[in-house]
From TrEMBL:
SMART domains xref list: HTH_MARR
Matching Gene3D superfamilies: Winged helix-like DNA-binding domain superfamily/Winged helix DNA-binding domain
Keywords: DNA-binding, Transcription, Transcription regulation
Name the UniProt record assigns to this protein: MarR family transcriptional regulator
Protein source organism: Streptomyces genisteinicus
One Pfam family this sequence matches: MarR_2
Top-rank taxon, per record: Bacteria
Gene Ontology biological-process entries: response to stress
SUPFAM superfamilies associated with the record: Winged helix' DNA-binding domain
Residue ranges annotated for the HTH marR-type domain, each copy included: 10-140
């Protein structure tokens, strides 16, 4: 039953978004486990496979405490998937960066996520761009940054 003031269409959209998120999360956790990673480790590795980042930026992106990221990066570093290096722009700052092995594992993880990829394949490029823009707007990020 819809909450007072909430129309049935909004309720359905919220439920559908919840279902998509839950299915994606479950598949992501399974894919990560197949590579002996936690979901959080896989997400950090995915971020770092795109660009080297300071720990605080990773924490902001993941919406968690920097100390949590330190532990995740430590475990990824022990496996040879991530390395720490000085930031060329500010030598006081350490960046976490995926190693070649880490980037390869992140690529394999991305390609193994059928649920994340398959439904989007049914959409045209214009529909995918519209969906992206609507999701950004819902998150308050119309610029995409």
């Amino acid at each position: 039953m819809a909450a007072q003031g909430t129309d049935p269409l909004t309720v359905e959209v919220v439920e559908l978004i919840g279902s998509v998120v839950a299915r994606y999360h479950d598949e992501y956790e399974r894919a990560a486990a197949e590579h002996s990673l936690t979901g959080a480790q896989a997400r950090v590795l995915g971020l770092l496979s795109m660009d080297a980042l300071p720990m605080r930026r990773i924490a902001r992106t993941m919406k968690c405490e920097p100390s949590n990221i330190t532990g995740i990066v430590d475990r990824l570093e022990v496996r040879g998937l991530v390395e720490r290096r000085p930031d060329p722009g500010d030598r006081r700052v350490k960046l976490a960066a995926a190693t070649d092995e880490g980037r390869e594992l992140a690529r394999r993880l991305r390609t193994s996520l059928d649920f994340a990829r398959e439904p989007l394949a049914e959409l045209t490029a214009v529909e995918r761009a519209l969906l992206r823009d609507l999701l950004r707007r819902m998150l308050g990020d119309a610029t995409g940054t």
